[in-house]
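[Meeting: bench + compute handoff]

Bench side (C.D.) handed over the final construct sequence. Compute side (W.E.) agreed to return the predicted structure before the next meeting so the bench team could plan truncations. Sequence as handed over:
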Amino acid sequence: MKGNKNLKGAILVNAYTKIEAAHRQGERLRAEFEKRGVQTDLLANDFFAVSVDGNLHCKLTGYDFCVYLDKDKYTLQGIEKAGIPLFNGYAAIEACDDKMTTCLALANCGIPMPLTLSGTFCYEKSAAVSEQSLDMIESALGYPLVVKECYGSCGKGVYLVRDRAELKEKSAELLLVPHLYQKFVSSSYGRDVRVIVIGKKAFGAMLRESQGDFRSNVALGGKAVVYTLSKEEKELCEKVAALLNLDYCGIDLLFGDEGNMLVCEVNSNAFFDGFEHATGKNVAGAYAEYILSKFEKE
């Protein structure tokens, strides 16, 4: 195996995002690899890295690994099939990109989560969610309840629904959008814990709190401070990362009604800018160290 100083990596980021934290993520990782004598190229994912004509062609020649900070699953799958080591891999990112898929992947594995129903699937704009379906959602989850678009980050596409009229309106609005319905955990209103896991080991955690929103995301104005994980919380997050085979992730925990923690979401490309500022921990450095450890001589 090559020594670290001979390695060359690619960091792929979404070409069109306007989220500053996404750009800083790539820059921070590149800087930490450079500190360790490893060249990495920060690439916008718009150059058609993968093509197929019966055979698979990949333009990432000359790279020993790829840190994938995008959610384009087609390019991701092609790079993996081309044999280039990925952080994270295809199956892990695909499982986390869709919130309902994440719930299903963790089901029957002893992972506590809020009660969740997948949104009814529809092809027709003129259709409407049946009154019977609305009755079942109400009966299972009560009010208020949470409606989430299955694809989204930074708290976007997450809605608090307080009554039947709002439920009917939101269900109609999201009729053709993959979504889910989830029990609202009132004991965790405006607060949660974000845990960063690297190499399937809990690296650190921060408590996020909002003064005026049921969502605690820092991107929406939530404040963050260092949080000390209990042994049980640490083991829970490491189990989630192992089940999903994640090299790196951010896991959001809710404070359950009975004092227990519930897994709310798992983000395979969790932004760590706010986490580094809140905790003083060098996430980018630790992630770079973990990746490079995979290439050390035995």
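W.E. noted at the follow-up: The two ends are 9 Å apart (CA to CA). C.D. will use this when planning the next construct.
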